[in-house]
């Protein structure tokens, strides 16, 4: 361990956490609950990307858009929707949920659990040591008796397209903190961020063009992207699949941006938003001082302990380990890692036998995700293609949601689709996908079924209330039963 340099202060803690987003806060809370002293280092806002530029503001902005769309699907309510969204009201709602980008409330939470907050840029400086550089240039050295947990998240990945710097593109941050509606917006990227941003800004009044190299939300079942693309097109967006940007121009910083596409055509917009993936925020946190590659994703075990680092002291949680770039998954990992840190700090061996398989399932094979588009797309577990590639013998069960009367009552002419991916050898669910209005609220039941490996013969006796959208479960399981021609001793 290197010694503090110059007149730096030096303070020892049991645990040091780099990053005060939801993931960092959760591991800090878990460690404090175990009686360990904790320092949390944050260079931006306490609460992180999720609280101020991602999950929270995007959903605060999207909800009014979806609420109006839902109202227009119900006769009687449709006639009451007589105007456009009040964008000032929508932005004010967003501002309330991000507390006007004031992080004092979240900083107070850290204080309430007994963690010490250090504001500044934290960098590893050898094993178990972190140097924090404040905005005024002063430095503070922290040493960790037991663990350093990296929870620094990820950043937008901008492609190296000629003219991209001149174009000054939006990223997810501009897409969620802007209070000006561009007349014409091009969204580049058909993943989760791309489709949500396209839904949002089209709903707020932009003329949106969405460019995607392949189908939308490609990690979900193909029908999910097809239905989301249909919904965007019906809302007025121009969805172009198979399009690629090859160059950008914006000679006037206040003027429009011109995009050149791979078919040599050009497209002009007032703003362009790139949603082309994420890169780990690990390039400037001192990984080189412990033999790791700056800017890399960090490989971890089931307790989120970083592989290849001696001494069992370095953990990587959330986006930086690249398992699932989702807040809820990072928080799950933080709880797991916090328990492991406490166990190792007490000098006890970590025996993950009772929960290791479950953790692997929850963190890799039963990851739930929702895209708040119109219609919503929600999925957990494996797609049919992924299951087959993994060597499972499967059957898919597909139904349109109008099979359930609850869906028809939810919205006149309800359009949506559901799929089960069934492991035929064990008769459990490997994956579930729902697409349709309001399906995000169905996802937790699917997650329980997949993560818990609930046998279908038992799942059939989990009765769905009539008349709710969740009745789709009854029809999916009945369709599977009939197709398998399995005799039952009792009605489903």
Automatic annotation (TrEMBL):
It comes from Streptomyces monashensis. Residues 367-472 form the Pyridine nucleotide-disulphide oxidoreductase dimerisation domain. This is Pyridine nucleotide-disulfide oxidoreductase. Belongs to the class-I pyridine nucleotide-disulfide oxidoreductase family. NAD(+) binds at residues 189-196, 277. One of its GO terms (biological process) is 2-oxoglutarate metabolic process. It comes from the Bacteria. SUPFAM superfamilies: FAD/NAD(P)-binding domain (SSF51905), FAD/NAD-linked reductases, dimerisation (C-terminal) domain (SSF55424). Disulfide bonds join 50-55. Residues 13-328 form the FAD/NAD(P)-binding domain. Its cofactor is FAD. GO terms for molecular function: dihydrolipoyl dehydrogenase (NADH) activity; flavin adenine dinucleotide binding. Binds 1 FAD per subunit. InterPro entries: Class-I_Pyr_Nuc-Dis_Oxidored (IPR050151), FAD/NAD-bd_sf (IPR036188), FAD/NAD-binding_dom (IPR023753), FAD/NAD-linked_Rdtase_dimer_sf (IPR016156), Pyr_nuc-diS_OxRdtase (IPR001100), Pyr_nucl-diS_OxRdtase_dimer (IPR004099). Keywords: FAD, Flavoprotein, NAD, Nucleotide-binding. FAD binds at residues 59, 122, 152-154, 319.
């Amino acid at each position: 361990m290197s010694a503090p340099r110059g007149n730096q202060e030096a303070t020892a803690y049991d645990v040091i956490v780099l990053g005060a987003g939801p993931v960092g806060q959760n591991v800090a809370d878990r460690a404090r609950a175990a009686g360990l002293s904790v320092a949390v280092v944050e260079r931006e806002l306490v609460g992180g990307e999720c609280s101020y530029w991602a999950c929270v503001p995007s959903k605060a902005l999207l909800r009014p858009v979806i609420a109006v769309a839902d109202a227009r699907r119900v006769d009687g309510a449709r006639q009451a929707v007589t105007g456009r969204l009040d964008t000032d009201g929508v932005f004010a709602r967003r501002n309330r949920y991000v507390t006007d980008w004031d992080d004092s409330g979240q900083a107070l939470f850290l204080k309430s659990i007994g963690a010490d907050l250090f504001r500044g840029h934290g960098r590893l400086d050898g094993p178990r040591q972190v140097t924090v550089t404040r905005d005024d240039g002063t430095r503070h050295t922290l040493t960790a008796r037991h663990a350093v947990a990296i929870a620094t998240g990820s950043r937008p990945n901008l492609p190296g397209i000629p003219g991209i710097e001149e174009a000054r593109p939006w990223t997810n941050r501009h897409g969620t903190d802007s209070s000006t509606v561009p007349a014409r917006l091009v969204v580049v990227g058909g993943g989760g961020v791309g489709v949500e941003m396209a839904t949002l800004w089209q709903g707020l009044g932009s003329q949106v063009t969405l460019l995607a190299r392949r189908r939308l939300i490609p990690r979900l079942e193909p029908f999910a992207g097809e239905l989301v693309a249909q919904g965007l097109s019906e809302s007025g967006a121009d969805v172009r699949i198979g399009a690629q940007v090859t160059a950008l121009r914006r000679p006037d910083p206040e003027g429009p941006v011109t995009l050149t596409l791979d078919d040599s055509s050009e497209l002009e917009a007032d703003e362009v938003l790139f949603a082309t993936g994420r890169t780990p925020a690990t390039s400037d946190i001192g990984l080189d001082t412990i033999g790791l590659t700056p800017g890399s994703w960090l490989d971890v075990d089931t307790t989120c302990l970083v592989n290849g680092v001696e001494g069992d002291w370095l953990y990587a949680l959330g986006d930086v380990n690249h398992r699932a770039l989702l807040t809820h998954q990072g928080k799950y990992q933080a709880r797991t890692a916090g328990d492991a840190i406490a166990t190792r700090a007490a000098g006890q061996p970590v025996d993950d036998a009772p929960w290791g398989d479950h953790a692997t399932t929850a963190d890799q094979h039963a990851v739930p995700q929702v895209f708040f588009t119109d219609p919503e797309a929600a999925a957990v577990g494996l797609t049919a293609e992924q299951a087959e590639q993994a060597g499972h013998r499967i059957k898919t069960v597909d139904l349109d949601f109008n099979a359930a009367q609850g869906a028809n009552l939810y919205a006149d002419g309800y359009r949506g689709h559901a799929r089960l991916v069934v492991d035929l050898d064990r008769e459990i669910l490997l994956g579930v996908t729902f697409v349709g209005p309001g399906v995000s609220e169905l996802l937790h039941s699917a997650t329980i079924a997949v993560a818990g490996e609930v046998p279908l013969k038992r799942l059939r006796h989990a009765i769905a209330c009539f008349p709710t959208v969740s009745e789709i479960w009854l029809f999916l399981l009945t369709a599977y039963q009939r197709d398998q021609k399995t005799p039952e001793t009792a009605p489903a």
